[in-house]
Specification:
single chain, alpha/beta, Nucleotidyltransferase, domain 5, ten-stranded mixed sheet, eight-stranded mixed sheet, 23 helices, 32% helix
Length: 785
């Protein structure tokens, strides 16, 4: 017996445009013999559907439980409407509106169906480098506006041929309403500049085999490629790109090729083959057939599988791994506009494999690690942005978080949706700043967000801070750097705190006039108490000490031995002409602010062990120190925990300075016993390192013991704070927690104490997550006010 008829207006919000959602709705409704229509608007997808009540129930279950592979449903509502007696189901034109709520899909790797067509000689799209469908292909990098339809993408200039148009309008076809759909007769064209050949792919492979540098236009910008087995080619690329040591990523055609280079577990395989296709950092096989210059001195390789048809074709044609690194020089942003790329990369690339589909927004490759079987993002960009991070509570007003200076991202928050941008880079030059400002305007337009609150770092010289301070008609919120790190971890895990937050990184502006970076905070989203930190030492020469880790060795040795370190240390001998002068600068306090930085402590130990005296990229010394650590060593260096002789720095977001009452406070009995801050004695760790060196222990052993010692004393300090406050959760954030060895040991130790541990899983622990923390804090304070 058929149930009574009913009619519903169903609204679906989330990532539901450009992912085949309307065709899916159409197919489901026809299968259930329902009438009505489906369309896109500025809020997402709207459906008016009519039929028997039991069929409508199955229809809603199908939408909720079995959506298209790339769809992400955040909210679905159903409102009863009068029955109209309608027949048939159709897709209606998109509706435009000013109040936009729709979400944009990230760019998606080539699906299995399109890949089969790509290599099928009988298919009309055989070897066509721009094959795509509703389940894959470009999205974020080609969209100019919403609703997501072809006229507002960079495919607008390519009119569909009759065959493509027939597929596009056929509800039974995989390309039904696939906006970037095309074929050789009507779509973009591939060409090779700087080399000869009838087939651009085959000729490009010959360029690589010959040891030359090839520029390749991808989804979000240009890459630079060389044969990954060719040592001379890799060195040539390094020289031209002015990238001395930083590892290159390597693209391989499939999992079998990845296994020949690296050790893979199931989690790594899922990431490599998933729709996002990030670069995955993996343990390198000792016999991996890759040139040493690809990742010098590194036990890991950054591996990725092809994510566009062009990459698949080139990988198969070449038949060997190839380097695929960002198309830029030094720290410039990746080149994405054609003429700019030809100009900026002409002195780097010998040939260009390019095409005429414009890129609207530049997007670098994403980078992840696998930690304890879970994904830890290190750079969140292509394949992830602009998918929002949903927060636990909605914000009262729209918020912009401007991020930090290094590894910059920005974030726009609207209600409970935090749109963390793609990776912008280091805000140290005009080109990157322009990318930052253009990106903010693009996100504001796409998601119809006009921020009323703007959060920024406390450092007055950051370009992101200066951008915020120059804005009109907004409420400004200054957010301490390490509080933002912990807030990012909280927001990442949809929590509000309070927690014991461990924020270990390189540099952050402290409200007490020192440089923070080894912090233990009692924190929630509205405030913090600085409950502990690493013992501070001078930063001799300021930023020069960041580029020259041996200076930090001098500062830490001076502190550990009261100015009289033992004789015979190699680091002293290597820098004898400048050693005493640097110590004098450190003691004078001139251009030598105190720092509690964990990153700078890693630098000092790296220099002591002869691993790295001068760095060529941010974090290099710490990365190489981790690489040198013996994984078989389990002992750790001992270190004490003392009390500071000054009151804790506190900030509740209301009053500037220190000593103000907090939402997180110990004055009302909520968290008794914080008292003066704990001080983790870095000098103990330094002396232990020196003792091991003088005792003749191998560098690998000493490096491992340092990691374990820092981890163990951090666990001990957290356990004391948890016991004093009654808080049972610890949040780990900051760039130092990209270090897998440290993260493992700290997490395991905390869990053995019965504590709950929060780590990052959707945004990076480094400064790439700062903007999310800033908006989370600003929104929480706005809601409280």
């Amino acid at each position: 017996m058929r149930s009574a008829s009913a009619r519903l207006l169903i609204r679906v919000e989330g990532i539901v445009q450009g992912v085949g959602f309307r065709p899916y709705v159409h197919s489901l409704a026809r299968r259930l013999e329902l009438a009505g229509w489906v369309g896109n608007d500025a809020h997402g997808v709207f459906v008016e559907v009519e039929g028997p009540s039991d069929a409508l129930t199955r229809f809603q279950e199908g939408l909720r439980d079995d959506p298209p592979p790339l769809a992400v449903i955040h909210r679905m509502t159903a409102t009863p409407l009068p029955v109209r007696g309608e027949r048939g189901f159709r897709i209606v034109p998109s509706r435009r509106g000013d109040d936009r709520e729709t979400l944009i899909s990230p760019d998606v790797a080539t699906c299995a169906d399109c890949l089969a067509e790509l290599f099928d000689p009988a298919d009309r799209r055989y070897r066509y480098p721009f094959v795509n469908c509703t389940n894959c292909g470009p999205r974020f990098t080609i969209i100019r506006d919403v609703p997501y339809d072809r006229p507002v993408t960079t495919m607008a200039g390519f009119a569909m041929c009759d065959a493509c148009a027939a597929e596009y309008h056929d509800p039974a076809d995989r390309r039904f309403h696939a906006q970037p759909t095309c074929c050789p007769a009507c779509g973009p064209t591939l060409r090779l500049r700087g080399a000869q050949g009838d087939d651009p792919i085959a000729a490009a492979a010959e360029v690589l085999r010959a040891g030359a540098v090839l520029a390749v236009k991808g989804l979000g910008g240009h890459h630079l490629a060389v044969d990954a087995r060719d040592e001379a080619a890799a060195r040539r690329l390094r020289s031209r790109k002015h990238r001395e040591d930083k590892p290159f990523a390597v693209m391989v055609p499939d999992l079998d090729a990845a296994r020949r280079l690296c050790l893979l577990d199931l989690a790594a395989e899922r990431l490599l083959t998933g729709p996002r296709r990030p670069i995955v950092l993996l343990p390198r096989r000792p016999d991996a057939p890759v040139a040493e210059a690809v990742a010098p001195g590194n036990r890991e390789l950054g591996i990725m599988l092809p994510y566009t048809p062009l990459h698949h074709l080139l990988a198969r044609e070449l038949g060997r791994p190839y380097v695929l690194t960002s198309g830029n020089v030094a720290e410039e942003p990746i080149a994405f506009r054609d003429e700019d790329a030809f100009k900026r990369l002409s002195g780097v690339a010998d040939a260009f494999l390019t095409h005429d589909r414009p890129i609207h927004i530049r997007t670098d490759d994403s980078v992840v690690r696998v930690v304890r079987g879970r994904e830890l993002p290190l750079r969140r960009s292509r394949g992830y942005a602009p998918q929002p991070v949903w927060l636990a509570r909605p914000a009262p007003r729209p918020v912009l978080g401007c991020g930090a200076e290094l590894k910059n991202t920005f974030c726009l928050l609207k209600e409970d949706r935090a749109f963390v941008s793609h990776h912008i880079g280091d805000l140290e030059n005009y080109e990157t700043l322009r990318s930052f400002t253009e990106g903010i305007e693009h996100f504001r337009r796409l998601f119809a967000i006009t921020p009323r609150v703007v959060a920024h770092d406390l450092h007055p010289e950051y370009l992101s801070t200066k951008y915020a301070l120059a804005l009109d008609d907004v409420d400004l919120v200054g957010v301490q750097h390490h509080h933002a790190h912990i807030a990012a971890c909280l927001a990442d895990n949809r929590e509000a705190g309070p927690v014991i937050g461990v924020a270990f990184d390189g540099t952050g502006y402290g409200p007490d006039g020192t440089i923070w970076g080894g912090e233990l905070l009692v924190a929630d989203l509205t405030g913090y108490v600085r409950a502990g930190h690493l013992s501070p030492v001078p930063l001799p020469g300021g930023v020069t000490a960041i580029r020259q880790p041996w200076r930090m060795a001098a500062a830490h040795l001076d502190a550990a031995y009261d100015g009289a370190p033992p004789t015979g240390l190699d680091v002293v001998a290597r820098h004898r002409p400048d050693w005493d002068a640097v110590r004098a600068v450190a003691r004078s306090g001139v251009n030598s602010p105190l720092t509690s930085s964990a990153g700078r402590l890693f630098d000092a130990v790296a220099a002591l062990l002869g691993v790295r005296d001068i760095v060529n990229y941010e974090g290099q010394a710490a990365i190489e120190l981790e690489q040198r650590a013996d994984p078989r060593e389990t002992a750790g260096h001992p270190a004490r925990i003392d009390r500071a002789d000054q009151p804790a720095v506190r900030d509740d977001g209301r009053l500037p300075g220190t000593g103000d009452p907090l939402s997180v406070r110990d004055s009302d009995g909520r968290f008794p016993g914080i008292g003066d801050p704990l001080v983790i004695r870095a000098d103990d760790l330094i002396r232990a390192v020196v003792d091991d060196l003088r005792g003749g222990l191998p560098v690998a052993t000493v490096a491992a013991r340092f990691h374990h010692g820092l981890a163990d004393v951090t666990v001990a300090a957290c356990a004391r704070l948890c016991a004093a406050t009654g808080i049972g959760t610890v949040a780990l954030s900051g760039g130092v927690f990209q270090n897998r060895l440290l993260l493992y040991r700290v997490t395991d130790g905390l869990e053995r104490h019965g504590l709950r541990v929060l780590v990052h899983q959707r945004v990076p622990p480094n400064d790439g997550g700062i903007s999310l923390g800033q908006v989370a804090i600003a929104a929480a304070r706005d809601a409280r006010s």
